[in-house]
Design a protein that fits this description.
This protein is α/β, with parallel strands linked by helices and about 325 residues long. It is built from 15 helices and eight strands. Its EC number is 1.1.1.94.
């Protein structure tokens, strides 16, 4: 595999393009803003995200023409916020994706039905499971940009697709875990963003390490309950592809979800927090989707409930955490 079309222009997309171009994979990159396109094609720099990263322009062609980018490669990588994915897909002619393989790295449920990104791709474009893959953590874009040792997960039901993708993303600083548990990894990637938000709220409220340890322990238990109820996980969650992603999002200062939650904990409204942040925190939209999923499954998930009541019912974060204190052990 020598060519991949990348859809999305944020920090995570930039980090993935860095890896691909370092591995001499030809990247056709769709971005919405012409200023980004010009800076990337001329200088190999995304001026909006990870601007300290210099990309190899010999393997990069950026464009604001979505259809053109989709036509260039037989493999498409979608790296966009989950809330924007349906509107983006509505502009794409399904015939452009006929026979192509699709990779998603979208960490939130999609659409009014709160489906997984891979399920949305299957429903909207008719892309079978054997033509799909998912990229997940545990990792942050900033550390990939700095070349720090990182582990990443690639999931697909198609082993030959996995083997094709491994050399595209492996490097001296990036190790690849391969999995076939597509849905389990997707749900874990979505849930961890909500955990990051709630951990940030706890920090903003000035809770200490002792409480944080109990909060994260309960989050691990909630994740296990969710995956068991959905019958999607084929593996124990105590491995880096599941648990590692949750931990790095809960504790890392690079976590935009944790930063979002911290502002909420300090008394900011959702609108004020969104205005204060330059990047999208996927946990906000993910909270609504997972709350509905847990409700449909009849699950009691205090951490999800806390996030939902604070973010969507506009309950006072202080009183909700007092309630959470009584509902975790």
């Amino acid at each position: 595999m020598t060519e991949i079309s990348v859809i999305g222009g944020g920090s995570w997309a930039t980090a993935l393009v860095k890896i691909l171009t370092e591995n001499k994979v030809r990247v056709f990159w769709y971005l919405r803003r012409q200023v980004q396109v010009e800076a990337l094609n001329d200088e190999g720099i995304n001026p909006d995200y990870l601007s300290f990263v210099k990309l190899d322009t010999n393997y990069l062609q950026a464009s604001t023409d979505l259809n053109l980018v989709l036509q260039q490669a037989s493999t498409i990588l979608f790296v966009v916020p989950s809330a924007h994915f349906p509107s983006l897909c509505s502009t794409i002619d399904p015939n452009l994706l006929q026979g192509k393989k699709i990779i998603t790295s979208i960490k939130g449920t999609v659409g009014e039905d709160n489906v997984l990104p891979s399920a949305f791709v299957a429903q909207h474009f008719g892309v079978e499971a054997y033509r799909q893959a998912v990229l997940a953590g545990p990792c942050h874009a900033e550390e990939i940009g700095m070349g720090k040792k990182t582990y990443m997960t690639i999931c697909s039901a198609n082993d030959s697709f996995l083997q094709q993708l491994r050399p595209c993303f492996s490097s001296r600083y990036l190790a690849i875990n391969l999995h076939t548990d597509l849905c389990g990894i997707e749900y874990a990637a979505i849930y961890k963003n909500v955990v990051g938000l709630v951990c940030g709220m706890a920090k903003g409220l000035n809770y200490g390490d002792n409480f944080m340890a109990v909060l994260v322990s309960n989050a691990i238990y909630e994740l296990q309950l969710l995956l068991e109820a959905l019958h999607v996980s084929e593996n124990r969650i105590a491995c880096s592809s599941y648990l590692g992603d949750l931990l790095v999002t809960a504790y890392s200062p690079h976590s935009r979800n944790r930063s979002f939650g911290e502002l909420i904990g300090r008394g900011y409204s959702v609108e004020q927090t969104q205005n204060a942040m330059s990047m999208v925190a996927e946990g906000y939209a993910a909270t609504q989707g997972l709350y509905q999923t847990a409700k449909d499954l009849g699950l009691n998930m205090p951490i999800i409930n806390t996030a939902y009541r604070v973010l969507y019912n506009h309950m006072a974060v202080t009183s909700e955490f007092k309630l959470l204190e009584r509902n975790i052990i």
